[in-house]
Design a protein that fits this description.
This protein is of the alpha/beta class. The protein is built from 12 helices and 8 strands. Strand 1, helix 3 and strand 2 form a beta-alpha-beta unit. The protein starts with a helix and ends in a 13-residue tail after the last helix.
Length: about 325
């Protein structure tokens, strides 16, 4: 375990220090491990990162500044998936078949504004790695509700007096229904979860076609918690079954992390100010919905097995 952690810590980072993300930004952890994991899996390849309108179009910097050690292409909300597919096709035409084209999209651009483009790219099986950076609201424009906002959450458009009704869109399962080669959920809440995260990134790097990675990205200002608690918040999301870790690899479903002792959903909700208005009855209702989703997932998931070894192309 220690050797594995040392390798992760000492590898070259493709997200540079000194970037403009908020203190404690969970997605900053995620994007680092996505990019470094893809580069480690295919060391002879190059990476082009496509970012639709979001916090990360600001964090990336204004030319000639670039917070990333890869080529970055910034796009409007709705067009990231199709632009990534176009970039991949253009590179293929000039013989640059070794380039990995990666979308880093938020829940607003993925679940809402750009969903038609994402769905169409999946239907075409475009050779793109699409990463959903899910911080569960439109954070860059003032914490408005998105299709990824969870049940009961406060946002500026769903205030405490009228919080988010209905449940979060199950976008990863929607993408799996497209029949694409690979779908997985990712979380960096603990070392075992991070190992699961990196194994899935490696798997995604080793197969062609449309691959969809759904990464939970805790947001201190939007979720209302202290900046040093991002990893703990994500750990609780997984341990409470709010955000299960699973994969669908060429149609085969598998739960990749099973908490030994699931924590109550109230433990996850209780450490975030965006849920502080909820009553005990409302929390119990959310717990029931989480249990229903977990039962449905375990009904289709295969028994635990080792992740397939990714090929090195």
């Amino acid at each position: 375990m220690a050797r594995w952690v040392d390798e992760i810590v000492t590898e070259e980072r493709l997200l540079h220090p000194g970037h403009a993300a908020c203190a404690g930004c969970g997605p900053a952890i995620n994007v680092r491990h996505v990019l470094d994991g893809l580069a480690a899996a295919r060391p002879d390849s190059r990476i082009v990162l496509v970012i639709p309108a979001s916090c990360w179009t600001i964090i990336a910097g204004v030319w000639p500044v670039n917070a990333f050690g890869v080529t970055v292409h910034l796009t409007p909300f709705a067009s990231a998936a199709v632009e990534a597919a176009a970039i991949k096709s253009a590179l293929r035409l000039v013989g640059r078949t070794d380039t990995q084209v990666v979308v880093w999209g938020g829940d607003g651009s993925t679940c809402d504004i750009g969903f038609t483009g994402v769905s169409a790219a999946a239907e075409r099986n475009d050779d793109v790695v699409y990463v959903l950076n899910d911080n569960e609201a439109y954070m860059n424009t003032g914490v408005q509700k998105s299709g990824g906002t969870p049940e009961g959450a406060w946002t500026t458009t769903t205030p405490a007096a009228a919080p988010r009704s209905g449940q979060k869109k199950e976008i990863a399962r929607i993408m799996a229904a497209h029949g694409i080669p690979y779908v997985a959920t990712l979380a960096a809440g603990s070392v075992p979860m991070l190992k699961d995260f990196r194994a899935k990134v490696t798997r995604a790097a080793g197969i062609p076609g449309f691959r969809f990675l759904h990464a939970l990205g805790a947001c201190p200002p939007g979720w209302k918690y202290p900046t040093g608690e991002s990893a703990e918040i994500v750990r609780l999301a997984v341990e409470s079954h709010v955000f299960p870790l699973w994969e669908c690899d060429h149609g085969a479903w598998r739960i990749t992390y099973r908490p030994k002792r699931p924590v109550p959903v109230r433990d996850y909700l209780g450490v975030q100010g965006r849920f502080s208005h909820l009553s005990r009855e409302e929390i119990d209702a959310i717990q029931a919905h989480v249990d229903e989703r977990w039962d449905a997932l375990t009904a289709v998931g295969e028994p635990d097995r080792e992740l397939p070894r990714a090929s090195s192309r």
